[in-house]
Design goal:
It contains 9 helices and 12 strands. It has a 7-stranded parallel beta sheet with strand order 8-7-6-11-9-12-10. Strands 1-4-3-5-2 form a 5-stranded mixed beta sheet. By secondary structure, the chain is of the alpha/beta class.
Length: about 260
C-alpha cells in the first residue's frame, strides 16, 4: 500500500520513481513521468489515467479533485519532487503513467488513411527536438510519429516535458530501418524526405494524402537507404549563414507545407 505522505528523500518510492529518469529504469518498469498540472490535464482529456499522482503540499481529499482518476495519490514535499525530477524548481504535480504496450507501437498497427499527414524521424538525438517535433505533429493533426532506429526515448522526462502534453495525443510508433523502408515502399500517398540537396523546393510538392514526411537526425541527416525509399526529396532554402535547421523546425515547416497543399 502506498503512503499518503512522503517527506524523506530516502523513501523507497522516491528511489523507484527517480529511476524513471533513466532508460534502464523505464525499460524495467515500463512507466514514465509527466510534470505539471496542465500536462496532466491534457493526459486526462486524452483518456490517460496515471498510476500515481504526487502533489506538493498538504494532503487534500481527493488530492487533485479527482480529475485525473489516479490509482493512488501521494502528498510530497517540493524537495521530494526535485529529487525525482532532477529539477531545482519542480512543478507541483507529477504523474506516473504506464508506457503503451510494445505491440501497439509496431508499424503494422499504422493505418495510413487515418490521417492526411504523418511524421517519421530517423535516430533523433536531442530530447528537446524530439519533444518539439511531436508537439508540431500534434498541432498539425498528424496521425502519428514513427521513430526509426536508435535515438532518444520519447518517454524520457525531458522529451515528455518538451511535448507540452502532446505525447498523450499523438501515437508513437517504433521501427527498425528495414521496417521503416518497408513501410515507405507500401505507403499509399506521398513520401517526402527532407534534405539540403533535395530535388524540389518544399513548397512546390503536391503532398498527396496521406503524406509521410521523413526527417533525419540532427547531425547526419537521413541515411542513404531511408532517403532512397522516399519518392520525393524536399529542400528548405538556407538563405542566411546557417547550414541547416534543427530536426524539430524542419519537421514543422514541412508538416505545415503539406497541410496547406492538402487544404
Amino acid at each position: 500500500m502506498q503512503p499518503l505522505r512522503i517527506e524523506s528523500l530516502a523513501n523507497p518510492v522516491v528511489k523507484e520513481l527517480r529511476a524513471l529518469r533513466t532508460p534502464k529504469g523505464r525499460d524495467e518498469q515500463r512507466r514514465f513521468l509527466a510534470e505539471g498540472e496542465r500536462t496532466i490535464a491534457t493526459a486526462t482529456a486524452a483518456g490517460w489515467v496515471p498510476e500515481m499522482l504526487l502533489v506538493a503540499g498538504p494532503l487534500r481529499a481527493p488530492i487533485d479533485g479527482g480529475a485525473s482518476g489516479a490509482r493512488s495519490a501521494i502528498s510530497v514535499t517540493s524537495e521530494v519532487l526535485a529529487k525525482i525530477t532532477g529539477r531545482d524548481n519542480p512543478q507541483e504535480q507529477l504523474a506516473v503513467y504506464a508506457e503503451p504496450a510494445p505491440e501497439s507501437q509496431s508499424t503494422g498497427r499504422i493505418d495510413p488513411r487515418r490521417a492526411a499527414r504523418w511524421l517519421m524521424l530517423e535516430a533523433p538525438r536531442d530530447p528537446g527536438n524530439l519533444g518539439s517535433a511531436i508537439r508540431s505533429a500534434d498541432a498539425c493533426g498528424a496521425g502519428g510519429v514513427v521513430i526509426v532506429g536508435s535515438g532518444c526515448d520519447p518517454y524520457a522526462i525531458e522529451t515528455v516535458r518538451a511535448t507540452m502534453g502532446s505525447i498523450f495525443s499523438v501515437p508513437i510508433f517504433r521501427a527498425t530501418s528495414s521496417e521503416a523502408i518497408e513501410l515507405l515502399q507500401r505507403w499509399p500517398g506521398s513520401t517526402v524526405a527532407t534534405a539540403l540537396d533535395g530535388a524540389s523546393d518544399y513548397v512546390s510538392l503536391s503532398y498527396e494524402s496521406p503524406t509521410m514526411i521523413v526527417v533525419g537526425s540532427e547531425a547526419d541527416g537521413l541515411t542513404p537507404s531511408l532517403r532512397a525509399a522516399c519518392r520525393e526529396a524536399a529542400r528548405i532554402p538556407m538563405l542566411g549563414t546557417a547550414e541547416s535547421l534543427n530536426l524539430a523546425v524542419a519537421a514543422a515547416i514541412v508538416l505545415y507545407a503539406a497541410e496547406r497543399a492538402q487544404r
